[in-house]
Amino acid sequence: MTTLTRNPGTRTPRLPRTILNRTGPGRTGRGDARIALFFIAPAMIGFVLFYLVPTVRGIYLSFTEYNILGDPEWIGLENYEAIAKDPLFWNSLAVTGQYVLLNIGLQTALALGLALLMHNVAKSTIIRGALLLPYLMSNVIAALLWFWMLDYQIGVVNQFIEWAGLPRAAFFGSEEWAIPTQALINTWRHMGYTALLIFAGLQSIPGHVYEVAKLDGASAWQTFRKITIPLLRPVLVLVLVVTVIGSFQVFDTVAVTTGGGPVNATRVIQYYIYQRAFTESDFGYGSAIAVILFLILALVAFIQMKFLKGNESDLD
Amino acid sequence: MTTTASRTPLANPAKPTTRRRPFNPRRAGAWALLVLAIAVSVLPFLWVLRTALSTNNALATNATSLLPADFTFGAFKRVFGLQTPAEAVAEGGSGAAIDFWIYLRNSVVFSSITTAGAVFFSAMAAYAFARLRWKGRNAVFSLFLGTMLVPPIFTALPNFLLIKNLDLLNTMLGMVLPYVFMTPFAIFFLRQFFLNMSREVEEAAMLDGAKHLRIFFQIVLPNAAAPIATLALLTFIGQWNEYFWPLLVGSQDDVRVLQVGLGVFKSQSPQGAPDWSGLMAATLISALPVLILFAAFGKKIVNSIGFSGIK
């Protein structure tokens, strides 16, 4: 970083010296409390109004029946009991799980491969920039772009498929293809970004480790297995935690292309919450599913951190 | 955050610079794969452009030509509402009134206000977390950080109810409010930089009697100009691409943003066949501001991707 090199002390303000009656930043105590309150006030308003209170209110709503008109009515665990017996909920869970597995599996494998390729043959910013481009586009754009390219009638991908002598695929219209297609679209969008994160991790592995391995006559595969992967593990775990959590919340691409269909094939959890809360005005039920999603995400993150030991490095 | 990727190749001293390397099939294979990945990432955008410059009738019969089929700017005119309904229908549009100018304006307003507010207020908060001493500072900071773990859908429902109760549905204010005061990431990101700034200048200014407000505006902000610019860039792109919240709160035409407008445009397909060229023209317009930012500040964006800030 070059930001700290500029010397800002060019101007010396002539102000009365009042050092003695105030506490400098180096002192202990609560001397800065009042000014701190001033600096933090706007962010605090946003935090309380749009993060803290909604979190508490969301949990409360999950124990109520509430259809916007009137007041929420406390019904205890009834929403959760209904969810346990709701085939659409279980379907959404299964569909989302299938999506996450496909998306994360593909995406992580491709990204790791790309990161290694970049690390070994080309580290230029232009290449990284080109790979990052899809990630900078919105989900909606990614969805529409592929909705067009994968069109059954005149999509270019199906033209290629036909040239290859294979039958055209209804990527969005058939139940078997719908989820893999969503996974592919999001893999396309996130592949380069994930690769860049892993690439940054690769860059932080000290070069001398590789030198030593080379001197010891280690093969490329051995170096990869015994050095790169163990040293990269903390970064890989962090990447996995972040991408898995994001993947569970897939919504935009589904909402724009299939709307949960065909039948229930792409009704992922977040889309189901959206439908229950906003199209069916069942805010209590929607909130209860959101609580469950929240718990699932917390559990998944916890398991990943615990079993992949994400917060420990093998270096040293 | 930006330091990881800019390592000098000191660790790799054996790198030949002038001598031509003998042909290495492994290296060639690696390059081929990399080029393939780049093609997959970039070529779809050219396909969008080519489609946007075609007419729908020609697209149907000429699905694979690399150049626009029956070149025209009609699709762009159509999405900006410059075609008469009759013209639009003749070119395969729906004939429904669409005006992406309004959506473009709304997107610009929405993204600019939220970015300016979030970055500025987050900088203030980050200053308090990094440079001021007060009781409970770390606890409050952990609480702020914790919100990064709450899935947006979870808070979106109660937030929607709040905005509705405040009677702010379908207003720009209602759309902007949840983002404008801060984002947890922005506070986290800037706090890292403020923590690493040298204290000396600040203390000298303090001895001269400068107040915190002065220090913040005249020393801290100017010194953190580069990370603040990066943060503003990333925040703007993120806000530009935001879909879920604007979909919930801004469903009427006068506040609808581009991303939501695109979804609506897609769903009004005329007589079965979608208006592909119009849809791709609209998609391109929605992507254009980000593409321009990327062309101008690509290096800054690319170098900001890394994990050193989170470790």
Automatic annotation (TrEMBL), chain A:
Residues 89-304 form the ABC transmembrane type-1 domain. The chain crosses the membrane at residues 35-53, 99-118, 130-149, 231-251, 283-303. It is a multi-pass membrane protein. Gene3D superfamilies: MetI-like (1.10.3720.10). GO terms for biological process: transmembrane transport. Residues 1-10 have a biased composition (Polar residues). Keywords: Cell membrane, Membrane, Transmembrane, Transmembrane helix, Transport. It is found in: Cell membrane. GO terms for cellular component: plasma membrane. PROSITE patterns: ABC_TM1 (PS50928). Residues 1-27 are annotated as: Disordered. Belongs to the binding-protein-dependent transport system permease family. This is Sugar ABC transporter permease. It comes from Pseudarthrobacter enclensis. The lineage of its organism: Bacteria, Bacillati, Actinomycetota, Actinomycetes, Micrococcales.
TrEMBL record, chain B:
Keywords: Cell membrane, Membrane, Transmembrane, Transmembrane helix, Transport. This is Sugar ABC transporter permease. InterPro entries: MetI-like, MetI-like_sf. Belongs to the binding-protein-dependent transport system permease family. Pfam families: BPD_transp_1. It is found in: Cell membrane. CDD domains: TM_PBP2 (cd06261). Its main location: membrane. The chain crosses the membrane at residues 28-49, 108-129, 141-163, 175-194, 215-237, 276-297. GO terms for biological process: transmembrane transport. It is a multi-pass membrane protein. GO terms for cellular component: plasma membrane. Residues 1-23 are annotated as: Disordered. Residues 104-297 form the ABC transmembrane type-1 domain. Signal peptide: none annotated.
